[in-house]
Amino acid sequence: MAVNLYTFRIQRNTPREDGTLETRWQEFRVEAEPTSTVLTALEEIKGHQDGSLTFRQSCRSAICGSCAMKINGRTRLACKTHVADAVKNGIVEIAPQANQPVLKDLAVDIRPFFQRVHKIKPYLQEGDETDTNVGKSAYEQVNHVTQCIMCGCCYSDCTMAEVSPDFLGPAALAKAFRFVSDPREGAKSERLKDLSDPSGMWSCARCAMCVEMCPKDVAPMEAIVKLRTRGVDRDYHDGAGQRHALAFHTDIQKTGHLNEFTLLMRTVGFWGTLAEMGSALHLIKKGKAPSPFPHKAAGHDELKRMYEIIENNPLDVETKADERPPE
Ligand code: SF4
Ligand code: FES
Question: What span, in angstroms and rounded, lies between the C-alpha atoms of 137 and 187?
Fold first, then answer.
């Protein structure tokens, strides 16, 4: 196979004594086959060009999750990414994962990521809701999410983790879903209640980056949506996220339009609305204020019929909503 010369532009991070980092970019030229992995190229650099380059790796087989890093702006496993797929304008740019403190070069401190996983109590609990009858559908749900290798790709590319440091994040929430959907779990309701707090399932903005970047097709966002469905089904309506979803649902059912004038009030209450007045005034100034007059959308009758059909045929969220089509 043809061997090409590639440029690797790597972010070097050196810790200073005062705890800050000195960051610079360094370029290396590496000969590689197009099907070589980015990890092989990094090893070549470390072995033959600069032994001080620091990165994590172990299994080289997309199993241990330790080689996750930003490759041309997206977080991927270096051992699973071919150089030919990563190269852009002749350059492969590599940086450490985002949303986690950098220790040195490409190595990040993974403790905050795992603290989030520990927060959801990643173990089965005894309780009133325990059912020892584990059906095929439940087993498939549990099994699917356990494909997660805790690589952190989803957390690194999560847009909500970037702006909301307390957010549990996609991997921890997917793991929480694994326990909520396990019939043997005895405290499902308590879990759903805990997950309804502001750092939990309702904080996900559904950008779907976690679905796109997960190297194991865990699709964490799907798990988060199912958690929400179960939370609503059990009447956990206290948080802003739940209230927002219900206000959305009511408006669309009634008129086919969102009543954005009252949506904020119904979501965050009077004081929350007051706090957002600056943004609201800015929108009005820019001519982006919603219409104050509620009116029905075209095709609203059809929409109403769809609501009726759905309401007369409710999904059993413990089973049907979770079933995936056969592969
Ligand atoms: Fe990695 Fe996917 Fe697990 Fe996130 S859900 S930690 S991307 S395997
Ligand atoms: Fe283990 Fe890449 S080295 S996942």
Answer: 20
